# Entry
Amino acid sequence: HPEYTKTNYKKRAKRFGLTIEEVKAVHGKSDLPKGLESINNPEIKVLAKSFYEGYIDYPTFIKALVEAQNDIKSGIRASDFNWLLLSDIHVPFDDERLFDWVVGLAKKYGIDKIVQTGDLIDHYNLSFHDKNPNALSQIEEYNKTMKGLEKWKQAFPEMVVVKGNHSGRFDRRTAYAGLSDKFVRPIEDVYEFPVGWGKMVTEFETDEFVVGHGDDGGNIMNKVLRMQKSYVQGHYHSKTYLNFATEKLWGMQLGFIADKKSLAMEYAGKGAKHMIHSVGLLIEGNPVILTNKN
# Structure
C-alpha cells in the first residue's frame, strides 16, 4: 500500500492509538520487517505478521486491528477476571446483613474486580424532594455516611465507582447555591475515597461489557444492540434480570442492596416491599445474578 504517506501514517497512528512504527508495520511493505520488530503488543504483532505474509486480507486485518486496539485501550480483558457487580448501596442506608452477604460472595467466588454501578451514597438531605421531618441533619447524615463507608473501604480497597443520579444531588446543590466547582471539593475528596477507588466515572468499559447507572433511561437491550457490547446497570430497584441478545451479548439489570425499610426508600411507599436485593457476578466471562430475600 504505497499510497500511505508519512502524513497518513500520523493520522492512522492517532486514530488507532498506535505509534507511527506500528502503523508502518501495517501499511508499508518496505517498512514491515523493521516495523514488526518495534511492535511490543503481541496481539498486534501477530495480526501485522499475518497480514504481511498474506494469511489475512486487508479488510479482515483492519477489522481485527480495531477490535484489538479497543481491547488494549480499555486495559482489561473481562474474561481474565472474576467480577462482582454491586448496584445502589445508598450509604448510610445500606443493610448490614447484605454487606456481610456481599463480602461472603467475594470470598466464595474468588473475586478479582469490583464495580459499583452507581448510587453508592444516598445524599438524602441534599435532595430537592420532600423529606421526612425526622430525618438526620446534613452533618449527621454526613458523619453516618463516613462511618458507613468505612466498612466498604476496608472490605474492598479497590473498586470502580460509577456515578449515579444520587451523586448528582451533590452537583445540583452546588449549582443551586451558585458556586463554581472551583470553590467546591470533589466528591471523592469529601468522602475520602481510597486510592484504589479513584475518581467516579460516568461509565466503565471493558473489552466485553460496559457498566452504567441506568438513569439515562431506555431499554437495556437496546443499549446492548446499539453498542454491540454487553451492558450492566442498576437504578431500578424493583427490577433484576439477565437477558441475552446472542450467546456473547447480554444485558444485566441489577436491583439494589440498601435497606428497604430506611428513610431513603420511603418514597416507594408500599412498593418498597417489591424491591429486589441482587448482585451480579461474571465468573470466567459467564454472567450470573444472585438475589437475597432480606
